[in-house]
Design brief:
This protein is an alpha+beta fold. It has one domain. The chain is 42% helix and 25% strand. Strand 1 and strand 2 form a beta hairpin. The model has no long low-confidence stretch (mean pLDDT 85).
Length: 126
């Protein structure tokens, strides 16, 4: 599996910059077969800004603040088909990119493990 990343920018409304990150994985046929076999398409690889509980005025205020920022979710299906993530801030875009890179590395490990069920793998340690 290879991870393909593309950064871009454009002017948004009111002249503010909008930064975008396109993510897509180049998935081999045997990896696609493992995704289908183990039903991994809906597996969430990255999710930002999840809201935990909260009640009263503080809970309402925190939910309003979260709703005004970008919420991002990347699933295996998104990675396989490609997804565009838009951010108001370049720092946020770079942070999301780093999280997606790490999640993709972990998912590549999952696919590698899936290939070796029912067989042996030799790991050289020294």
């Amino acid at each position: 599996m290879k991870l393909l990343l593309r950064r871009d920018q454009r002017s948004g409304m009111l002249g503010k910059m909008v930064f975008s990150l396109d993510v897509r994985a180049d998935i081999k046929p045997e990896e696609k077969a493992a995704i289908d076999k183990y039903k991994l398409g809906d597996t969430i690889l990255y999710e930002s800004h999840t809201i935990e509980g909260g009640s009263g005025l503080l809970g309402i205020a925190s939910r309003m603040a979260i709703n005004s920022t970008v919420r991002v979710s990347v699933t295996v299906r998104d990675l396989a088909g490609g997804k565009r993530i838009e951010c108001k801030d370049i720092v946020e875009m770079l942070a999301i990119e780093e999280h997606v890179r790490e999640a993709a590395k972990l998912f590549a490990d999952v696919l590698n493990a899936a290939k070796h069920f029912g067989g042996e793998e030799v790991v050289e340690l020294a």
